[in-house]
Hints:
Elements: H1 2-25, H2 37-52, H3 56-66, H4 72-88
Helix pairs in contact: 1-2, 1-3
Amino acid sequence: GKKAKEAAKNAAKKNKRVVKSSVKDVNYFAESGAASPAQIDAVLNDVELVMSKIDNEELAALAGKLGNKKSAVDVRAVYVEEIKRLVDAGKLKNGEAKTLGA
């Protein structure tokens, strides 16, 4: 029904926010100091790329894995694993995710 669709859409929006803020919260993986605009763009491009290749269930699973990660190392590990999964599934080409791939 319409309500279920609406709920699914809202959940997806919320999950996208979690996924995006996961990289923001670790300063876009900048080693020290502020992340450069180029670094931010590169990371967000990969995040968008990953999100464009997964459905709402996969998005929910990804958000669930990222929700409690606070360190850059842990957050990156989740992305590396997700990207590898997408490559294995033929949804991404190896090396397509330039910044967050292994």
